[in-house]
Every structure is written in structure tokens, then in C-alpha cells.
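INFO batch 0412 | record 1 of 1 | parsing
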Amino acid sequence: MGYLSERVSYLRGLADGLEISDDTKEGKLLKVIIDVLDDIAISVEEVEDEQKALLDDIDDIDARLEDAEDIIYEDCDCDCDCDDDDCCCGCDCDDEDIEYTDLECPNCGAEIELDSAIIDEEKNVLICPDCKEEIEIEWIDDEDDCCCGCCDHDEE
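INFO prediction complete | emitting C-alpha cells
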């Protein structure tokens, strides 16, 4: 029993102890007021319980989101302070730069900004977020245009 329900029970007991009768107009009014207060107390307690459940769910979602972010945005766990591709430990510390590309939907004309990290070159179809139509993607192989054959840099 919550704090408000305890207070309403106290009022109900006080009214019974004072022998307030339903026979008088004031007695009827006080009993109805106590009944309304009891209904309000029960409603408030239900809202508090639902709010607590929602906060617990939000905390759970937040923890899961942190786990997903850790997996998706893996940071370099090495102790080196390197900023280039020639890292002493072999990690790609410079891979934190996310490249974006813009695409115009041929069906509805919407501009779609694609993150290079989510582009899967194995799939040749993308769903437009605006019109929900499929967009066929033709991938261009940049390795043929590379002057040194390493394909680890953008050709200037």
C-alpha cells in the first residue's frame, strides 16, 4: 500500500471514529470525498508503477544500445597514440573517419545519405526510406583506376 492510500485509509478511519453518518448532508459529502480520494490514490499508484516499469525498460534499452555501439563503433583498444595508417600495433586507428555518399532515388527523387560503413557491396538493392521502393545499385570497382595497386588511398 502506497503513501497516498495509507493517508486515505487514515481519513476513512477518522471519519468512522468520529461516527460521521450517511444520514446528514455533510456526512454524505465527506464519505464521497474520501471515496474520490481513494480512487485518486489508486490511480496515482498505478501511474507510479507504470513509470517505474518504463524507467527500468529505458535503462535496459540504454544498456543494450551501449553494447551495440561498442560493437558497431569499435574503437582502437591499443595503447598507442598513432594517427596514421602505419600503426605500430597493426590496428587501423585512422578508420574512424566515416565516409558518406549521396544517392538520389530514381523513383521519388529523395536525397539519401548513405554511410559507407553500412553499404554492403554484396547486395545490389537498397530500399528508399521515403517511397519504400527498391533502388538497384551498380558498384564501380575503383581498383582498376588505382595508380599503385594498393587501393588503400583515394586517388588525387
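INFO post-check: The chain has two helices and four strands.
INFO record closed
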